[in-house]
Amino acid sequence: xxxxxxxxxxxxxxxxxxxxxxxxxxxxxxxxxxxxxxxxxxxxxxxxxxxxxxxxxxxxxxxxxxxxxxxxxxxxxxxxxxxxxxxxxxxxxxxxxxxxxxxxxxxxxxxxxxxxxxxxxxxxxxxxxxxxxxxxxxxxxxxxxxxxxxxxxxxxxxxxxxxxxxxxxxxxxxxxxxxxxxxxxxxxxxxxxxxxxxxxxxxxxxxxxxxxxxxxxxxxxxxxxxxxxxxxxxxxxxxxxxxxxxxxxxxxxxxxxxxxxxxxxxxxxxxxxxxxxxxxxxxxxxxxxxxxxxxxxxxxxxxxxxxxxxxxxxxxxxxxxxxxxxxxxxxxxxxxxxxxxxxxxxxxxxxxxxxxxxxxxxxxxxxxxxxxxxxxxxxxxxxxxxxxxxxxxxxxxxxxxxxxxxxxxxxxxxxxxxxxxxxxxxxxxxx
Length: 431
Known about the structure:
3-stranded antiparallel β-sheet, single chain, mainly alpha
């Protein structure tokens, strides 16, 4: 078989210098736009991507992004009609500062990794409903190919050498949601008459998922005991697992909220945490400190080598902020393994599969229900913008017996006396 050949093309668009690939695949001449220098593309990175694409072509796993592209002469491109790349890149640049940093990074992920490799050279008027459906099917097929490559022991790798895994249905839908937002602006600007990415039919139906609820006192106690035991293991450099997991369980912050928590946000005297960094307006909130957590945080602050107002509450060993990967892999994962061992020793039910830092927010919801909170108050404490999730969690937990809920409430009461007088009446112990 003849060796596939190609070249990197440097171009100067109105927005600056960019890179593309030109190569032969499946008997046709292909042209693939990569991105701009402002988006991090360099000649070296483009050459690496060319090598990856040519390797996929030789294996027969590369799918031409524009294979299903249709032109519609009756609409006409017009001299001022931008390509999707031009319009989407400008849209993304304008969004900076208007949304959270995390939201901006999510949109960049959707564009750089998924939408631009497929739609970059399309004119906006060429993207119709069949084109969006073709894109969805393409991502499904791409996922099947990546899964097959992993199964054979020869996974496809990205530019950084990481294995490219199949995209989940939820992630495919998230990319289509970003496409929808871009095309919605294109409608407002008059480039297209309607949004072809609108509607549930353009998205994949998500499989039903079993809820992950850590809602028994025995499981919560085992997880805290496991984290404490790991803190005292001299073979492990990481400390503070117990107080971090206690905060996840007893206050319900999102991972990035916990990682960005400063001591000025923790009001031990008045028993509350201020969440000032969140992905939504609803996420900016106050969380009353439950007695057990207040004790944990007070002891943590007393022993912390950095406890100034602008110091992180849960710093890394070098004093910096943790990230969600550190939280999941270094803090929670070892504690889950040890907790299951403890539960087995105690002849109790093991933890459910799929516990993550985010799932521990459901555990916090179970505690609030045990304390007698109503759904609206649970929603406010969790920082939910959508009441449907809160109600799903709340409905599940209300099925628990009064005895189970009293046991859960007793666990979080801790050593603190006069609990019912120290927090708002809506969180008084149930039963």
